[in-house]
């Protein structure tokens, strides 16, 4: 115990000493993404609003969800729909660590909801955060377990849970190396619900109280039907099949352009579309394409339809459903460098088969399931990926079958959102509890009864 206390004390000292560095980093990032320069005081546990009073008996709960970035915020949106159905009148406190997450999260807010930056993990900032908002439960999405924040919640009696939990091999090894610091943080959780059995095993090994394997929330995402309809209309109007480089990360576009150059005329048998993962890189990617000798048409310049160009650049946020429906096949960004891969479930839900590189450790279970279902293929590197994507796109006879495999795969793994919302509701005091009407075939015993 004394070793854990010493480790936490040293960690808190280092976090406090890092505050000037954090402030400088925020100023630098704000030059490209101005949102990083807004509400900076929230990063250190200081807020303009009045502190919240404790919820009165019979009142509605304040559910705090932390979604660090864009992907976690989209998963939170899926869970939030179920939570609002099961907890009518609930208020939401939504926190983030990145500008893309906060911008996306603003779309989820309703009357009375709150949004803030998650505080830097110093003892003082996290304690001020918990005292100010007084959440009735905290829900961390996927990976974000911070030692000082966990300790502040435990001291204040706020149940803190990990939803859609995942822990890849690299993070697992790091948590085990820092076991004196990480284990108490994971052990302080009220519950953890894992995406996959392997995530559950790793989470248990670092001390988390794993309460179940509920699957991946992102399978419950329903693609925007208007975006899908528009994407399909644009695809039908394209004279060539469309290949998408989806959610590309820094360094991958250069590999992709190098592969296109090596293929020569073969690379021009399809229409290329690239959507960078981070919006601050849209201009940079456009410049890379121009420098490689390719003409570019940007989504932001399209009025009613894509403009003719060698490469279409998807420089918009929140339109991946459109891009996946526009494409015949997608190269999975983040998987061609040691970055862990991006979410392939959204592609499958849109009926778009995926070609992925060797690095998918962030979504290992989903990647393995997609391979088994025929919704994805794996290649060794970007050059092989480009060649395979072109071959699939030009195979018109097999296009419908591959798309059907993708949508069937996505549908087969739904249900995590409802199960997670039920599990969260069980941890709230009985005065907050509301059981919706039973669905056909639902066991009423799945829900706790008032006063239980």
From TrEMBL:
Residues annotated as catalytic: 72 (proton acceptor)
EC number(s) given by UniProt: 2.4.99.12
Residue span(s) of domain 3-deoxy-D-manno-octulosonic-acid transferase N-terminal: 39-220
Catalytic reaction list: lipid IVA (E. coli) + CMP-3-deoxy-beta-D-manno-octulosonate = alpha-Kdo-(2->6)-lipid IVA (E. coli) + CMP + H(+)
Enzyme class: transferase
GO biological process terms, semicolon-separated: lipid A biosynthetic process; lipopolysaccharide core region biosynthetic process
UniProt pathway: Bacterial outer membrane biogenesis; LPS core biosynthesis
Pfam families: Glycos_transf_N
Key word Cell membrane present: yes
Chain positions of site Transition state stabilizer: 142, 218
Annotated compartments: Cell membrane
Major localization class: membrane
InterPro entries: Glycos_transf_N, Glycos_transf_N_sf, Kdotransferase
Presence of the UniProt keyword Transmembrane helix in the record: no
UniProt keyword terms in alphabetical order: Cell membrane, Lipopolysaccharide biosynthesis, Membrane, Transferase
Gene3D superfamilies for this protein: 3-Deoxy-D-manno-octulosonic-acid transferase, N-terminal domain, Glycogen Phosphorylase B
GO CC, any one term: plasma membrane
Molecular functions (GO terms): Kdo transferase activity
Assigned protein family: Belongs to the glycosyltransferase group 1 family.
Function: Involved in lipopolysaccharide (LPS) biosynthesis. Catalyzes the transfer of 3-deoxy-D-manno-octulosonate (Kdo) residue(s) from CMP-Kdo to lipid IV(A), the tetraacyldisaccharide-1,4'-bisphosphate precursor of lipid A.
Protein's name according to its UniProt entry: 3-deoxy-D-manno-octulosonic acid transferase
Native source organism of the sequence: Melaminivora alkalimesophila
């Amino acid at each position: 115990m004394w070793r854990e206390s010493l480790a936490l004390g040293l960690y808190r000292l280092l976090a406090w000493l890092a505050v000037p560095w954090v402030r400088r980093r925020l100023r630098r990032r704000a030059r490209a993404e101005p949102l990083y320069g807004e509400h900076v005081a929230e990063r250190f546990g200081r807020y303009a609003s009045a502190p919240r009073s404790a919820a009165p008996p019979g009142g509605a709960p304040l559910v705090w969800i932390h979604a660090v970035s864009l992907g976690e915020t989209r998963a939170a949106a899926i869970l939030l729909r179920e939570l609002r159905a099961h907890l009518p009148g609930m208020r939401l406190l939504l926190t983030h660590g990145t500008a893309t997450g906060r911008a996306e999260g603003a779309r989820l807010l309703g009357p009375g909801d709150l949004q803030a930056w998650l505080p830097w993990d110093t003892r003082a900032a996290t304690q001020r955060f918990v005292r100010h908002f007084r959440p009735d439960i905290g829900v961390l999405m996927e990976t974000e377990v911070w030692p000082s924040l966990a300790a502040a919640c435990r001291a204040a009696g706020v149940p803190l849970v990990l939803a859609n939990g995942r822990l890849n091999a690299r993070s697992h090894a790091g948590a085990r190396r820092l076991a004196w610091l990480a284990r108490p943080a994971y052990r302080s959780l009220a519950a953890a619900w894992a995406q996959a059995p392997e995530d559950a095993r790793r989470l248990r090994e670092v001390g988390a109280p794993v309460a179940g394997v509920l699957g991946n929330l992102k399978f419950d995402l329903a693609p925007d039907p208007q975006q899908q309809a528009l994407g399909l209309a644009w695809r039908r109007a394209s004279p060539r099949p469309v290949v998408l480089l989806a959610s590309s990360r820094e360094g991958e576009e250069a590999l992709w352009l190098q592969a296109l150059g090596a293929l020569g005329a073969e690379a021009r048998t399809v229409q290329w579309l690239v959507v960078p993962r981070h919006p601050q890189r849209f201009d940079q990617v456009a410049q890379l394409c121009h420098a490689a000798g390719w003409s570019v048409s940007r989504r932001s310049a399209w009025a009613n339809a894509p403009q003719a160009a060698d490469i279409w650049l998807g420089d918009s946020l929140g339109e991946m459903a459109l891009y996946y429906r526009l494409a015949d096949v997608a190269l999975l960004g983040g998987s061609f460098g040691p970055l862990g891969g991006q979410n392939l479930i959204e592609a499958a839900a849109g009926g778009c088969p995926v070609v992925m590189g060797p690095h998918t450790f962030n979504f290992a279970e989903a990647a393995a399931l997609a391979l088994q279902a025929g919704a994805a293929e794996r290649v060794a590197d970007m050059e092989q990926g480009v060649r395979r994507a072109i071959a699939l796109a030009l195979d018109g006879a097999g296009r419908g079958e591959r798309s059907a495999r993708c949508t069937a795969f996505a549908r087969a793994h739904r249900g995590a959102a409802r199960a997670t919302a039920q599990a969260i509701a069980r941890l709230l005091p009985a005065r907050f509890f509301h059981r919706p009407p039973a669905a056909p075939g639902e066991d009423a015993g799945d829900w706790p009864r008032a006063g239980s």
